[in-house]
Amino acid sequence: MFSNAQTGQLYKAQQLYFESGVTYPYAFRKTQLKQLKKGIKKYESRILEALHKDLRKHPMEAYSSEVGFLYDEIDFILANLKQWMQPEVVTSPFVTYPSSSRIYRVPLGLTLIIAPWNYPFMLTLSPLLGAIAGGNCSILKPSELAPHTANIIAELIKDTFDPAYIAVVEGEGSEAIPALMQFRFDHVFFTGSIPVGKKIMEMAVPHLTPVTLELGGKSPCVVDEKVNITVAAKRIIWAKFWNAGQTCVAPDYILVHQKVKNELVTALKASIVELFGENPATSEDYARMINTKRFDTVATYLKEGHVLHGGQTDREHLYIAPTLLDDVEWSDPVMQDEIFGPILPILTFSDLPQAIQAIRQHPYPLALYIFTKSSKTEKMLIEQVRFGGGCVNNALVHLTNPELPFGGAGYSGMGKYHGRYSFDTFTHQKGMLKTGTWLDVPVKYPPFKNKLKLIKQLMK
Ligand code: NAD
User: Fold this and answer.
1) DSSP letter at 64?
2) Per CATH, is 220-400 categorized as 3.50.50.60?
3) Of 39, 171, 320, 382, most Cβ neighbours within 10 A?
4) How far apart are CA 259 and CA 422, in angstroms?
5) Centroid of ligand 1 to alpha carbon of 213 (angstroms)
6) Does the beta carbon of 144 sit less than 6 angstroms from any atom of ligand 1?
7) pLDDT digits over 179-224, tens only?
8) 143-158: b or e for each residue (b if 16 or more CB lie within 10 Å)?
């Protein structure tokens, strides 16, 4: 934990570093991105080990969603950064003749990146890629609830970068963040819960610091009557129980057309057995709850409704079986809170407008998944439900495409990132109009006598 004086010194050092202009050139940013990739490669096995210690993530799961994901994104940014940094030429109105106009994407300055525990490595470093690409300095605050990963991040960053450029501050969020945010950052990028997101926004107000908030919510998974049940079931089970349901965009609950509910339940049960065996407690591929606090919260949801499959728990080993829950009410806590664990309630609908009304009880989910063969159903849900982003006939994987913006809407967050959107988030768009001096059109200058008619002709 940093003392107040150390925090102040770090902030000052980053200010001086940024103001030196060293982060501006393309060559610098490119080198830093390459350095980071090299650093992650060097620490790769220790990162996977740390993720196993914190969440018992299988190395395959940890590699693909936390490490390989970053390699791909670094490569994508490197392939495009030079072009993104070019000033964008746009047209200029005739009344400004003889002028040309350009949009310059310039660094913001000092940025603060705050991360949660569920993808503790990726969610700390993925925003950092945008900050580096944008030419900024950064302070990273990983989650104290995934301590092994937080330690590795601190070590990797210290080994790779000058702290005056990029540094890690560890510790309790409720202490470390207010100490940091007494200073003015040019952008705060927060990933985490809605209540803490609100606090971050409050702390940003006195400095008018812009914030990106990547929050959570209840992401519905709608299964229409016209659907490939077997494929839908397998993809839903994979997505829901990846990281034991501790994924911000995990399907929170299923809303299935009543005509195909029984068929879907049979296929969901078969998929759980296929992916994790008859006893998932013995599966190497199934993660654990992060801590006893989260275990206790999620385990209480098992008392609601009726368990169709799973339901077993082992508090000592933070294990909750992949569970399907039936007969829950919309007013039950499991249908009020973001579950963020391996429990999947199944509710039904009889027509699409009814499903849309039901989803609207939890406004603006982070994701929405639509399993259907009907393009009409697909269109209606995309247009009529407000949500961050999602998939049709799939789940989670929209976030792996760096061409797509990733972010919430309303209560699930504000702002977006990944690929070009990260670059845009971490840069300021400076609009510049340049006028030739060989001609100075006199119409705008007083005296205005007899000029109104002309200006009306030019600006109709
Ligand atoms: P959290 O809000 O408790 O913590 C996130 C970060 O905020 C941590 O670094 C923590 O140290 C810090 N923090 C905690 N209390 C603080 C305080 N009082 N003041 C300042 N900072 C504080 O979230 P979490 O439990 O780590 O993560 C789970 C939540 O994150 C879920 O709601 C999930 O949906 C959401 N999430 C969203 C995304 C996304 O991309 N939208 C991704 C992952 C997780």
Assistant:
1) I
2) no
3) 320
4) 42
5) 10
6) yes
7) 999 999 999 999 999 999 999 999 999 999 999 999 999 999 999 9
8) bbbbbbbbebbbebbe
Residue 130 near residue 105, CB atoms below 8 Å: no
Decide if pLDDT at 2 tops 80: no
396 lines ligand 1 (CB under 6 A): no
112 CB-side CA count, 13 A: 29
Looking at the structure, give the CATH architecture of the domain made up of residues 4-215+413-432.
Answer: 3-Layer(aba) Sandwich (3.40)
For 366-385, give one letter per residue: b (16+ CB within 10 A) or e: bbbbbbbeeeebbebbeeeb
Dist. CA 255–CA 222, nearest whole Å: 5
In this structure, what DSSP letter does residue 142 have? -
CB atoms within 10 A of CB 442: 7
Give DSSP secondary structure letters for 164-210.
TTEEE--S-HHHHHHHHHTSPPSEEEEES-HHHHHHHHHHHGGGT--
**What pLDDT is recorded for position 1?**
65
- pLDDT digit string (tens) for 28-57? 999 999 999 999 999 999 999 999 999 999
Asked if the domains 4-215+413-432 and 220-400 are classified in one and the same CATH topology, the answer is: no
Q: Pairing relation of β-strands 211-214 and 187-191?
A: parallel
Q: Whose CA is nearest to atom 18 of ligand 1?
A: 174
CA distance linking residue 155 with residue 134, whole number of Å: 23
Mutate-to-test residue for ligand 1 from 113, 122, 175, 177, highest number of ligand atoms within 8 A of CB: 177
Considering the chain, what percentage of its residues have pLDDT values greater than 70?
100
Q: Where are the domains of the chain?
A: 4-215+413-432, 220-400
3-state secondary structure of 58: coil
| pLDDT score recorded for residue 4 | 80
> 3-state DSSP call for residue 268?
helix
Short-list 269, 258, 260, 328, CA closest to 300: 328
pLDDT, averaged across the chain? 97
Q: For residues 398 and 392, give the distance between their C-alpha atoms in angstroms, rounded to a whole number.
A: 9
Pick from 171, 207, 169, 172: which is nearest to 188 by CA?
Answer: 207
Q: How long is the chain?
A: 460
**pTM to 2 decimal places:** 0.96
Helix (H, G, I), strand (E, B) or coil at 218: coil
